[in-house]
Amino acid sequence: IAHPSALPAADLRALDAERLATIDLVITSYGTLLRLPALTGLNWRVVVVDEAQAIKNPGAKQTRQVKLLKADARIALTGTPVENRLSDLWSIFDFTHPGLLGSDKVFARFTKRLAANEHFGPLRTLVRPYILRRMKTDKKVIADLPDKTELKAWCHLSPKQATLYQQAVKELSLALEDAEGIGRKG
Which of these, 60, 3, 7, 52, lies nearest to 31 by C-alpha position? Predict the structure, then answer.
């Protein structure tokens, strides 16, 4: 484990290709990778990044450092490949499959065209072969996951809240009359 919680600082700083040559598995953190740039100089068989949404910002120092890792195979694990924008997905794929989605600018133009047509099927088709998604409904994957439980709780509005709610509904209805395309769907 290449982390300050598991190794004395001097041993951690001494990690190099020679010391790691006989090691089959190295576990570290994004922060430690930033502090140990020697790890990016090694040739790894496989690099697995967990919580890969941590590399969603291609301009962040952490993301740039992770993308410097040299490996025969790269795997990204995340429950949220897209948190805020489609560029999150591009950044993760730029790590696992560099060039598959083009440059960040090419990808931005591509997704802008898809958004204009409100149809993301071509992107889904492109990334589908590289994404393994676990579904809660698939009992073969995780047999002990309980079924979803829903409990309806009715909370009545006070007269003042009901008035404000009706006012918000009227304002939204008026705004929708003039909206078009994605603005209307939003």
Answer: 3
